[in-house]
Amino acid sequence: MKSEELNTSVFPTWCPGCGDYGIWAALKKALSKLDTPIENVVIVYGIGCSGNMASFVKVYGVHGLHGRAIPVAEGIKLANKKLKVIVVGGDGDLLGEGVAHLVAASRSNPDITVILHNNQIYGLTTGQSSPISLKGSKSKTYPMGTPDEPLNPVQLALTLGASQVMRGFAGDIEHLTTLISDAINHEGFSLVEVLQPCVTFNKINTYAWFRERIKKLEQPERSRLEALKKGVWTNQQIMIGEFFRESKPVLGYSYGVLERKNLLELKRKREMNKLFESFR
């Protein structure tokens, strides 16, 4: 399959130059290389500019509530382990409204891939600070400068025990395609943070700003501690690539009846009358 075959009849509505275009291109390329039939791929989208991708990729998709894409994806995977399940969300969606779900998934290791669009801003609502906005950056919510220290999703996921943690850049589509492909094929929870500009509301973190600071990792680190060190953001250097990967038990794969069958394969007749009568 060619990546162009995954286009829909809807043309993207993102601002010209938005980093979402690069992520969209890399995701389609990664999907086109999968051994899994495309009908066995499901993408769950959050709310925000990244979530608008639901209209632009020709695969099965679910547009969830704000911040709730991860638990929806987990439910889909637990119901049918044959599916490749991917989450697409922004830094506001996944680290603001949905941060508790990211914490839980990093710990429990469901077999899903989370692609986190990081443009350091709430773009769809026209420019509010997100949990990852750089300290001092100005926005509609903080016109005098954001007072908070930003979250670091790579370090957060590593600390919580995520089995695969990556960071890519929307301006390097080939490298990002490789990362996303590896993440989808990894058995367990994968976080792929993607650095991207918001050309309309973030005038600091531009393509040029990132290119001046980005350096690629040659290979994953052997320990979480070393990966944590490499995951640090500084004004001089930002590492991208695969930080850490390990094999560990996957949520649902060794859990009671799910070890033997998919939930969809369980055919049980449920009698509800007694339950309904108990409420009369």
Automatic annotation (TrEMBL):
The keyword Metal-binding applies. Its EC number is 1.2.7.-. Pfam families: PFO_beta_C (PF12367), TPP_enzyme_C (PF02775). One of its GO terms (molecular function) is metal ion binding. One of its GO terms (biological process) is cellular respiration. The keyword NADP does not apply. Residues 50-194 form the Thiamine pyrophosphate enzyme TPP-binding domain. Keywords: Iron, Iron-sulfur, Magnesium, Metal-binding, Oxidoreductase, Pyruvate, Thiamine pyrophosphate. CDD domains: TPP_OGFOR. Its cofactor is Mg(2+); [4Fe-4S] cluster; thiamine diphosphate. SUPFAM superfamilies: Thiamin diphosphate-binding fold (THDP-binding). InterPro entries: 2-oxoacid:Fd_oxidoreductase, OFOB, PFO_beta_C, THDP-binding, TPP_enzyme_TPP-bd. PANTHER family: 2-OXOGLUTARATE OXIDOREDUCTASE SUBUNIT KORB, 2-OXOGLUTARATE OXIDOREDUCTASE SUBUNIT KORB-RELATED. This is Pyruvate/2-oxoacid ferredoxin oxidoreductase, beta subunit. The lineage of its organism: Bacteria, Candidatus Chazhemtobacteraceae, Candidatus Chazhemtobacterium.
